[in-house]
Design brief:
This protein is α/β, with parallel strands linked by helices. 27% of the residues lie in helices and 26% in strands. It has seven helices and 13 strands. β9 and β10 form a beta hairpin. α3 packs across α4 and α6 runs parallel beside α7. The radius of gyration is 20 Å and the shape is elongated. S-adenosyl-L-homocysteine binds next to α5, β9 and β11. The site of S-adenosyl-L-homocysteine has 25 residues, from α5, β9 and β11.
Amino acid sequence: MSGHLAVVGLGPGGARYFTPEADAALAAAEALYGYGPYLDRVPERAGQRRHASDNREERARAVAALRDAAAGTRVAVVSGGDPGVFAMAAAVCEQIEAGPESWRALDLVIVPGITAMLAVAARIGAPLGHDFCALSLSDNLKPWELVEQRLDAAASAGFVMALYNPVSRARPWQFGAAIERLRRHLPGATPVVFGRAVGRPDEQISITTLGAADATGADMATLIIVGSRATRVVQRPGRAPLVYTPRAIAEVSA
Ligand code: SAH
């Protein structure tokens, strides 16, 4: 029997970011797997089983979902934002590669969602309008030295950066260290955006500079965009400033 497994992105929060394709994939599922707070966002449907697990149990969740799908169940695994960005789609692929041959025969569908950096960027202008990269500051799955190396490389290459996973209870100092690191490469006036709980009722967006950025302003639900030397802040009367990165750069050093 060839089972079916959908890895579904819920977007950053709120129904308006939830795509019709994600809705259809969840409606068709017999069993849902995911981190509890994400599952809570999915409307209850009669006859559908729910398997909530802890945030840190991505590997075990992927294995359980694959086993269930391989047994013939129509399974959906949910992820916040996009499932392919620091989330469950890669965890499922890892287990398909490592697991029994039969898992490769499963019908696997990845349903994209709006990732946090796009939702934050859209709130304040177009900071990702030129070349950018996304980094996770979590050193759970890679050494901190590698995070530092990538911050150095991205800042000196002129990329705007979207920083995911800035802090957690187990990682209290990493974001402060990342800001310090970036100050070695970029001017104090570089625009920095903190976007917290974007798309949810408690959403907060703030614009500051690298010189003034305060690491305590970020929590687990915050995405930070650090501008490049080219990123601009346009003041507007009676409105929040626009932060954007122009599409064209004339000089190699920019
Ligand atoms: N798959 C998710 C990212 C998972 S990593 C996505 O595509 O968005 C978890 C990190 O994503 C958080 O630490 C935070 O940096 C960011 N994040 C997730 N949802 C967010 C939201 N609503 N607002 C701001 N940042 C968010």
